[in-house]
Here is the input.
Amino acid sequence: MEINILTGQIIGAAIEVHKNLGPGLLESAYEECLCHELTLRKLAYKRQLPLPVKYKGLRLDCG
Here is the structure.
């Protein structure tokens, strides 16, 4: 899938979740609903993958 189309679909899914839930909930609630929205849109995803974080030349083990 072309990257701009995929990006638009992901952002659209996130906006849909936020429109329905509003602000102020825990991250876990948004994550669960976003995963459901991505599934409804037939978009593949993986949850909570570890990613390396670098900050000003320092590699952090928090990602």
